């Protein structure tokens, strides 16, 4: 049946609540719940090309106010995403089944479940064993590449079904963001930060093994960079038992309640099938936010939990009276920016001194490695944007696998197995959101320092300022928010300047 836009809006909220609950149950290891396909069958009107055309037509009316047009664009993006996911639903479910049940053979007598291999790779101290695990993952992905290819092909079919000239053109229409316009900024960022990245990478590799070197003269691999993210030489300072207490102390000093007065439900119970990385499930914004944690150790686990806590606090402080588009949809670059703000506490050595009580030398080392990890992540996403644009223009092929391998090598000075080329991709060109989020976070960080000093992360006044911004949910896009913060246009260059300044200390 055809819905009015008003009726469509009334359907979005319960659908997203069911989706959030499904993601929570699956990710928390609570049940082998049906996949996204079963959920979509209950909400067919949200996945139809006709619904997309209806919202697109409503957007074309010249009499629309700016706020209403923004809300309609958010609906348009949601429907486009669901049309694509419906076309990909069999592949999505097949991928989920494969990753839940696949095993990685390391020897005649040793196997690892796929998820354990992915999660355990950065924690494995033996480099030969990391090599075996990575090769096993690459082999499994190569042998089961077809559903991943079909997932990417569904994006191209969605563009055809929805009357767009290309997939990138479709994402530009529904988000208002031109991915191509980010290319020069990404290329400049890679040039700007190359020397600092390469120098600290060489230093960190020697921490793992005195004989390791970056490409092109060395043989550093993807798993070596992942191992650096955990900073094993600092493990004694990032213990499992300190993870939640330290982060809760930080959140409380900033003026937030760790559970947002009950709106954030923290799931810390270890259970089989629980996702190893923290994640947030938005069941009902702002009143039911699930933060799922499988407590680990190491610098990277502190990074991951701070990031997800940033998401949880943002959504838990969103105004419940805001329209669904402003609470649940909108520019996710903004949501990612607030999450980055929290995990970027780790690049400040004073944070480590205060909340982990580290002496000067390990605090400075932790901050430098955290900055290096962040720089590696931004460089990786710059390379991914360049690669993914090509992937969505030409589709999955051997040439794209070679391009993925080369772009990873050029950006990160590592050998990345080409078999990861379809797995190491976020759907819906989400890489664009991350890149814009880093640029927005740089402006938020600058504004916080100007208003509340360098240690704003311990100032309740800064927390109140953030709460006022969080209350808006996703009402403002990243460009508007950056302008309001006084920083001008979004610029990756300022991200590079800040990270390099920490690396050069």
Descriptive account of the structure:
The protein is mostly helical. The chain has three domains: 93 residues; 41 residues, no CATH class; 323 residues, Orthogonal Bundle (Neurolysin, domain 3), CATH 1.10.1370. It is built from 22 helices and five strands. The strands form two sheets. Strands 3-5-4 form a three-stranded mixed beta sheet. Strands 1-2 form a two-stranded antiparallel ribbon. The longest helix is centred in the C-terminal third of the chain and has 35 residues. The mean pLDDT is 94.
Short description:
The chain is built from 22 helices and 5 strands.
Poorly predicted parts: none
N-to-C SSE string, H for helix and E for strand: HHHHHEEHHHHHHHEEEHHHHHHHHHH
Please state the CA-atom Rg, rounded to the nearest Å. 22 Å
CATH first level of the largest domain: Mainly Alpha
Give the arrangement of secondary structure elements:
Elements (H helix, E strand, L loop, with lengths): L4 H23 L8 H7 L6 H11 L6 H22 L1 H13 L1 E3 L5 E3 H7 L6 H17 L1 H17 L5 H9 L7 H26 L13 H9 L12 H11 L10 E4 L11 E6 L3 E5 L6 H18 L7 H5 L3 H12 L5 H7 L4 H35 L3 H15 L18 H22 L7 H11 L7 H7 L7 H12 L2
Parallel strand pairs: 3-5
Antiparallel strand pairs: 1-2, 4-5
Helix pairs in contact: 3-4, 4-8, 4-9, 5-8, 8-9, 10-11, 10-17, 10-22, 13-15, 15-19, 16-17, 17-18, 17-19, 17-22, 19-21, 19-22
């Amino acid at each position: 049946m055809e819905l009015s836009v008003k009726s469509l809006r009334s359907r979005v909220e319960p659908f997203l609540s069911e989706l959030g609950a499904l993601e929570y149950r699956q990710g928390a290891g609570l049940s082998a719940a049906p996949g996204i396909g079963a959920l979509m069958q209950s909400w067919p009107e949200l996945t139809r090309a006709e619904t997309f055309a209806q919202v697109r037509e409503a957007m074309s009316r010249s009499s629309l106010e700016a706020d209403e047009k923004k809300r309609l664009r958010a609906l348009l993006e949601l429907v486009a995403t669901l049309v694509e996911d419906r076309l990909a639903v069999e592949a999505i479910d097949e991928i989920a089944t494969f990753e839940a049940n696949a095993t990685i053979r390391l020897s005649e007598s040793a196997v690892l479940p796929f998820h354990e291999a992915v999660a355990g790779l950065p924690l494995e101290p033996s480099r030969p064993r990391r090599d075996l695990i990575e090769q096993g993952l690459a082999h499994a992905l190569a042998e089961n590449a077809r559903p991943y290819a079909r997932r990417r092909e569904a994006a191209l079919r969605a563009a055809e079904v929805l009357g767009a000239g290309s997939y990138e053109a479709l994402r530009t229409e529904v988000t208002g963001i031109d991915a191509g316009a980010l290319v020069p900024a990404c290329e400049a960022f890679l040039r700007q930060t190359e020397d600092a990245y390469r120098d600290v990478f060489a230093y960190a590799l020697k921490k793992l093994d005195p004989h390791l070197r970056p490409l092109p003269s060395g043989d550093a691999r993807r798993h070596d960079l992942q191992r650096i993210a955990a900073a094993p030489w600092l493990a004694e300072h990032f213990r499992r038992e300190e993870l939640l207490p330290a982060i809760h102390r930080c959140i409380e000093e900033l003026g937030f309640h760790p559970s947002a007065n009950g709106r954030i439900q923290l799931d810390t119970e270890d259970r089989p099938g629980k996702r190893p990385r923290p994640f947030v499930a938005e069941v009902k914004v702002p009143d039911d936010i699930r933060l799922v944690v499988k407590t680990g150790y190491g610098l990277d686990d502190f990074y991951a939990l701070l990031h997800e806590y940033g998401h949880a606090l943002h959504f838990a402080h969103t105004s419940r009276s805001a329209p669904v588009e402003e609470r649940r949809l909108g520019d996710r670059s903004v949501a990612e920016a607030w999450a980055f703000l929290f995990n970027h506490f780790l690049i400040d050595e004073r944070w480590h001194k205060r909340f982990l009580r580290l002496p000067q030398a390990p605090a400075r080392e932790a901050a430098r490695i955290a900055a290096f990890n962040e720089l590696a992540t931004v460089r990786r996403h710059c390379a991914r944007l360049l690669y993914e644009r090509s992937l969505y223009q030409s589709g999955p092929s051997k040439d794209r696998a070679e391009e993925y391998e080369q772009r990873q090598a050029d950006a990160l000075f590592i050998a990345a197995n080409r078999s990861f080329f379809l797995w190491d991709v976020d759907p819906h060109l989400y890489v664009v959101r991350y890149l814009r989020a880093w640029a927005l976070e740089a402006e938020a960080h600058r504004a916080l320092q100007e208003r509340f000093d360098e240690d704003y992360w311990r100032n309740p006044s800064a927390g109140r300022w953030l709460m006022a911004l969080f209350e808006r949910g996703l009402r403002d896009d990243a460009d508007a928010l950056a302008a309001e913060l006084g920083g001008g246009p979004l610029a990756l260059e300022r991200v590079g300047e800040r990270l390099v300044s920490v690396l050069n200390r």
